[in-house]
Specification:
Elements (H helix, E strand, L loop, with lengths): L12 H6 L7 H12 L4 H20 L9 H13 L19 H20 L12 E3 L7 E3 L15 H11 L4 H12 L4 H5 L6 E2 L4 E4 L10 E4 L2 H14 L24 H14 L9 H12 L4 H8 L4 H7 L4 H24 L3 H6 L2
Antiparallel strand pairs: 1-2, 3-4, 4-5
Helix pairs in contact: 2-3, 3-5, 7-9, 7-11, 12-13
Length: 365
């Protein structure tokens, strides 16, 4: 089936050019057009278009109508994703696989497929969703219990650099232009996501109170917030604003490109990613990314004893469950906690065995 993408589907035209298979399936183009009209950001729409187009291509190869496809056809798509060679090399999915896309990538590809079938159900085209969702219903006797999703979700701890790696990164970053140093400092100080950082405007800053406003439209959760930054970062900011004035005195995007081709234009997400990648490779810490500073900041706040809800508010999370995936203590922190806890328990047991007080046992150590 084809469509001219007229009317409410005009927002999907750009994506059908990039992913032609969407234009061959009227319902798919219609679904993407709805999300476009609802104002979803281009990056989200692109991820939806890519995931659904890959599923539609599989349906075409297998001569299956995606509108009437069943769970077995979706399972074929999952199997293809799990065995597909990764363009950046072998990516371990299970202990003995050594190939296929990562679990998080497979989950990402399935989201638009599930949402597409949700749309077909709402339109009365289908009665059920072949992708389904993992959920839990309390009560065994009433037929409750766990319902697993199509693909078990693996939750990995976020990676953060150790102290030596961090010093190596800072040594390389010290030689960077003032703009890049300020961006790294703000990304860590305020736990900013890449898009939040690159979307900052001059009027988002309040130097008098050393705070920065993160606008709702630039955030992942559509929740605006005001976060502080440190005095050293404030010094870098003052120096950068003087430098920025040599590029443009106009209010607007805070971080500007200095390349000859795009001079004084807003800095793009991809340019910032390339800058961070270059720094990471030069420092010999290739796992460092634009999101690592956020991981490190939230973990440091947890180490300083901040409460979970306070960290969630600082990070802009809707739920503390999201915050928990960003916060993890190092093995050394856990070992220290275990040592202190076991020392107390050991002292108590010795006191009980010998009939002496715990304080006497501790003083005799």
């Amino acid at each position: 089936m084809t469509t001219d993408l007229g009317g409410g589907l005009s927002g999907a035209i750009g994506f059908t050019v990039k992913w032609p298979v969407l234009g061959r399936h009227e319902r798919a183009a219609e679904w993407l057009g709805v999300w476009s009209d609802l104002g979803r950001v281009p990056r989200t729409l692109d991820a939806y278009a890519r995931g659904l187009s890959e599923y539609l291509l599989m349906c075409e190869r297998e001569q299956v109508d995606p509108v009437t496809a069943n769970r077995s056809h979706v399972a074929m798509f999952v199997r293809e994703l799990a065995s597909r060679p990764h363009r950046r090399g072998a990516n371990v999915v299970s202990i003995d696989s050594g190939a296929g896309l990562a679990n998080a990538t497979i989950q990402q590809r399935l989201v638009p497929v599930r949402l597409f079938y949700d749309f077909l159900m709402e339109e009365g085209v289908r009665e059920s969703n072949p992708v389904g969702r993992g959920r839990y219903t309390p009560g065994r006797r009433g037929g409750g219990g766990s319902s697993r999703g199509l693909v078990p979700r693996m939750v990995k701890l976020p990676w953060i650099p150790n102290e030596e790696q961090w010093r190596d990164l800072l040594a390389v970053a010290a030689g960077e232009p003032i703009r890049n140093r300020l961006m790294l400092a703000l990304a860590y100080d305020a736990a900013l996501r890449r898009e939040e950082l690159c979307s900052l405007r001059t009027d988002d800053l309040d130097p008098a109170h050393r705070t920065v406003r993160v606008r709702a439209e630039t955030t992942k959760t559509r929740r605006g917030r005001v976060v502080p930054y440190s005095a050293p970062t404030g010094v870098l900011l003052s120096a950068y604003l003087r430098h920025r004035a040599t590029l443009s005195r106009a209010r607007g995007p805070l971080f500007l490109s200095e390349s000859r081709r795009n001079r004084a234009e807003p800095l793009t997400l991809w340019t910032w990613s390339k800058v961070v990648r270059r720094i990471a490779v030069a420092a010999g810490v290739p796992r460092f990314s634009t999101h690592t500073t956020r991981h490190l900041c939230l973990t440091d706040l947890a180490r300083m004893g901040w409460e979970l809800h306070t960290i969630a508010s600082f990070a802009g999370h809707r739920h503390t469950d999201s915050t928990l995936t960003y916060i993890h203590l190092s093995g050394r922190d856990l070992a220290d906690k275990l040592s202190r806890g076991m020392q107390h328990i050991h002292a108590w047991r010795i006191a009980a065995l010998t009939g002496t007080s715990s304080a006497a046992v501790e003083s005799a150590r």
